[in-house]
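Researcher: I'd like a structural prediction for the single chain below. Treat it as a standalone chain; there are no partners to consider.
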Amino acid sequence: MKKIIALLGCVLLLTSCVNETQVNNPAFQAKLNDVNWKSQETTLSIGANGGLIITALRGNEKLVLTTSSANRGTYILGTTNQANFATYTLKSGNVSDVFDTGAYPGPAFLTRKLTSGNAYVNNSSALTSGGSGSGLVFKITVNNIGAIATDTIKARGANYLAGDVVTVDGGNNNATFRVMNTQQSNGELVIEEVENGTYTGSFKLNVVNEDGQVVTFSQGVFYRIPIS
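Model: Treating it as a single chain, here is the predicted structure.
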């Protein structure tokens, strides 16, 4: 009798695991302002530019993620390349509040080094000049010719725009960085796996509305979403 009960228990456990896998395949979920958020309906299509369009619906909410390509890789949001874009719409009655990763001024979030310069020295508070904003400060280390080898943002400043180019003060004033996006409009979508017409990956983003309010999606994942 004990063997029969044990066998039934194994069968029930296996059935439960299979059902759970089916429920979560495909899946689209994240944390919205640190609260669990799970799509009730998710569709994926290929846009006119050959990129992905992922639409996730939950009640009166809609999150749309678009990319410039359908290939595996990392797609940065909030930059001057608006083919990589996200919108979050919250509808209340006939009114819709739209948040997106457009080009909004703000503190610099992601930067990329364009030129390393020379004659710089190690500096824990390297000031910058140029661009639309002010106050961006780096912590830098340099190599034996004074070219910037590593950089960390120490202060993000204010009123920068995606695409701004700033110069690090000091040295021969020839080390430059591009502001990729700003603190309230940024993020990334990673296409990790493409298999049999399904897509798996992850995402995180900040989107902002015209009033400057910011919504944050973190720990986002999409799993085996098929092309519609």
